[in-house]
Amino acid sequence: MSGSINLIAGMQRSGKTFLAALIATYYQKKYNIPVYTNMDIEEFIKISYLSDMPIDKEPKVLLLDELHFYLNSRNFKTQADFIYFLNTVCKRNILFLATCIHPDMIDKNLRIQLNYFTLCKSDNNNLHYKIFDVQNQTNKEIHFRKEPGLFDYTNYDTTEIPLTFHFDIDKYIKLNENKKYFN
């Protein structure tokens, strides 16, 4: 799934961060792929700037929790800059996982480039996910029963507010233009 953009949306406490962390953990443990994130998760690499992530062709996961804080659909300057990053996701072998409350809160440029979109909801007993494969126009539903062992697969504080994240796109562009990273 490297080189894909995945948006996970749902109301607070719907399990969106859980699913994103679960997917990132899977890739980290099974394939030894580093995970860069704005969350404080012990096994992941915490970053505050996009340019903190290596600019190379090695597979990596970028997990940004609460993306609507950083890529609001009403901020044109951020939108214009962000397009450059979106166009490098595949070329830089990034699995981009992002969470938000509602997709309309996120810039349209991201929404039209999605590979997967997941709707989340929760009830007293279960987490419910409807995953849309945007490219193939298919969907799949999965459900997790809220049992004590379920949350053993992820390691994060559910009350944590994610770190401030900056799309320092000018620095990111300069790093991308420096060919020494791709020898």
Provide the descriptors you would attach to this structure in a database record.
globular, 183 residues, alpha/beta
Any overview of this molecule?
Helices cover 22% and strands 25% of the residues. The longest helix has 16 residues, at 16-31. Strand 4, helix 2 and strand 5 form a beta-alpha-beta unit. It has helices spanning 16-31, 76-86, 108-111, 169-177; strands at 4-9, 35-37, 45-46, 60-64, 94-100, 116-122, 126-133, 138-145. It has 4 helices and 8 strands. It is an alpha/beta fold and 183 residues long. An 8-stranded mixed sheet has the order 3-2-4-5-1-6-7-8, with helices on one face. It starts with a strand and ends in a 6-residue tail after the last helix. The model has no long low-confidence stretch (mean pLDDT 86).
Could you give the topology of this structure?
Elements: E1 4-9, H1 16-31, E2 35-37, E3 45-46, E4 60-64, H2 76-86, E5 94-100, H3 108-111, E6 116-122, E7 126-133, E8 138-145, H4 169-177
Helix pairs in contact: 2-4
Strand content: 25-35%
Arrangement of strands in the largest sheet: 3-2-4-5-1-6-7-8
Which class of secondary structure composition applies to the elements? alpha/beta
For the record, give the distance between the C-alpha atoms at the N and C termini, rounded to a whole number.
24 Å
Task: Characterize the main sheet.
Answer: 8 strands, mixed
Q: What gross morphology would you assign? A: globular
Give me the Rg, rounded.
Answer: 16 Å
Number of DSSP-assigned strands: 8
Count of DSSP H/I helices: 4
Portion of residues within helices:
10-25%
Order of helices and strands: EHEEEHEHEEEH
- Mean pLDDT score: 86
Low-pLDDT stretches are none
